[in-house]
Automatic annotation (TrEMBL):
This is Carboxypeptidase. The keyword Disulfide bond applies. The gene is LOC101501797. Its EC number is 3.4.16.-. Belongs to the peptidase S10 family. GO terms for biological process: proteolysis. Probable carboxypeptidase. PANTHER family: SERINE CARBOXYPEPTIDASE-LIKE 49, SERINE PROTEASE FAMILY S10 SERINE CARBOXYPEPTIDASE. Its main location: secreted. One of its GO terms (cellular component) is vacuole. It comes from the Eukaryota. It is found in: Secreted.
Length: 506
């Protein structure tokens, strides 16, 4: 499936020439294989599931509505202990469902909804996992969902689940990710227009079905490649609200964790971060910056003017930087450089696969015989034309209209490191740029301990999280819950004690 063909009409493109320049030369015993180069590059940068994508001929799942309404069922996972939180699942609205995407040929988006354990008037928070093509169930069971999977395949409460302060929505997207599926290959998405329109249509259908949540504050969150999804989705919601397209969505803010948003700035930061953290030596740094970085910068510029082929090629040109760093790094986990990379996911998520493949769990979810695709390589490859595009460009307009943005990043992540994220946030031009740049870092404290460093001005906040890698809610669950709580309540910029006093006064 991993073939990269170069036609005679594209061979002389400057970007293709750059790709050829940085690709390894063929050995005397073999012919150069672009397909194998592509496969290796993608394997070095992403997660790989046992299955590829859910494009099915005759799926056996919950029936979907012909009028583009959601079809869902109450969700009650089997083997749930229910101990430790003093609350019964019978008192909470947990749901699993499918939405037939309005602007598709046959696509069905799978979602999970978990009502707040405290108050159903809490904000509605949607979570988008990145990849691109990785399922949000990764976050449900390993990061910020209500439950954790025990080794005996039972579920226990997550003490720091984000449903303690919000009503949580998780979606499997783009089409072909997780339990989302289609019967038509034309439904595979390639850009943020398709992604954001699908998500907007889903929200309209969800709030139409559940008007009791429609007036709640609404926040968009996610991590990694969601650094692309989230700004586009936020802009689409804001546009729909302004145009009064349907149900008004009470968008208050969006948060991106260890995301990829402005590739031109973030790829330039790779070598700086790697040198600072002792992953590469000065000679490696000098070679990358002298040889590889200029080619990447040119490739990204051409991506902005030369269309889809140029953008795809720029992905391969620029990722020679990352590949070069990893060739010196050995078997480190590029999501958390303090650890070794073990297995295809660099983490052991096997319990999730086992749990979701149980018949009783599949019955509870209503997914029929749909395979669970943890991370789809086909979705990943389809989005390569989108990878090097700059999604920062639409953010200033959102800030100017009072939509809050939080960028947070674990300090030990390499692949979407805090340094690159900090640089694009500081470089972004908006009316409060100078004041934000001039603002001082203040400690983000949790339980009287410094959990991170925060910069804030107006609607913009940047938080560097201590002792965390790519998946902050997994590495620092208590700090991430406190971060979400204070941010959605408008008290993130205050110290922990001041925030508690203010909330109590309110």
């Amino acid at each position: 499936m991993w073939y990269f063909t170069i036609t005679t009409t594209t061979l002389w493109s400057p970007l293709v020439l750059l790709l050829l320049l940085w690709s390894p030369p063929p050995s005397s015993a073999s012919t150069f294989n672009h397909g194998e180069t592509v496969k290796n590059l993608i394997r070095n940068l992403n997660l790989f599931p046992p299955h590829d994508i859910n494009i099915l001929a005759n799926p056996n799942v919950v029936p979907t509505d012909k009028n583009n309404k959601i079809v869902e069922k109450p969700l009650r996972f089997p083997n749930f202990s229910g101990e430790g939180e003093g609350i019964s699942l019978d008192d909470l609205a947990h749901r699993a469902g499918y939405y037939p995407l309005q602007h598709s040929h046959a696509a069905k988006m799978f979602y999970l909804f978990f009502e707040s354990r405290i108050n159903k008037k809490d904000p509605v928070v949607i979570w988008l996992t990145g990849g691109p093509g990785c399922s949000s169930e990764l976050a449900v069971f390993y990061e910020n969902g209500p439950f954790k999977i025990a080794n005996n395949m039972s579920l226990v409460w997550n003490e720091f689940g984000w449903d303690k302060v919000s009503n949580l929505l998780y979606v499997d997207q783009p089409t072909g990710t997780g339990f989302s599926y289609s019967t038509d290959t034309r439904d595979i998405r390639h850009d943020e227009d398709g992604v954001s329109n699908d998500l907007y249509d889903f929200l309209q259908a969800f709030f139409a079905e559940h008007p009791e949540y429609a007036e709640n504050d609404f926040f968009i969150t996610g991590e990694s490649y969601a650094g692309h999804y989230i700004p586009a989705f936020a802009a689409r919601v804001h546009k729909g609200n302004k145009a009064k397209e349907g149900i008004h969505i009470n968008l208050k803010g969006f948060a991106i964790g260890n995301g990829l948003t402005d590739p031109a700035i973030q790829y330039k930061a790779y070598s700086d971060y790697a040198l600072d953290m002792g992953i590469i030596k000065q000679a490696d740094y000098d070679r990358i910056n002298k040889v590889m970085l200029p080619a990447c910068e040119l490739a990204i510029k051409l991506c902005g003017t030369d269309g889809k082929i140029a953008c795809t090629t720029s992905y391969f040109v620029c990722n020679t930087i990352f590949n070069s760093i990893m060739s010196h790094a050995g078997d480190i986990n590029y999501y958390d450089i303090r650890k070794k990379c073990e297995g295809s996911l660099c983490y052991d998520f096997s319990n999730m696969e086992k749990f979701l493949n149980q018949g009783s769990v599949r019955d509870a979810l209503g997914v029929g015989d749909i395979d669970f695709v943890s991370c789809s390589s086909t979705v990943y490859q389809a989005m390569l034309v989108d990878w090097m595009r700059n999604l920062e460009v639409g953010i200033p307009a959102l800030l100017e209209d009072g939509i809050n943005m939080l960028i947070y990043a674990g300090e030990y992540d390499l692949i979407c490191n805090w340094l690159g994220n900090s640089r694009w946030v500081h470089a972004m031009e908006w009316s409060g740029q100078n004041e934000f740049v001039a603002s001082s870092e203040v400690p983000f404290t949790v339980d009287d301990s410094e959990a991170g460093l925060l910069k804030n001005y107006g609607p913009l906040s940047f938080l560097k999280v201590h002792d965390a890698g790519h998946m902050v809610p997994m590495d620092q669950p208590k700090a991430s819950l406190e971060m979400l709580k204070r941010w959605t309540q408008g008290t993130l910029s205050r110290s922990g004690d001041d925030a508690e006093v203010l909330v109590a006064e309110l």
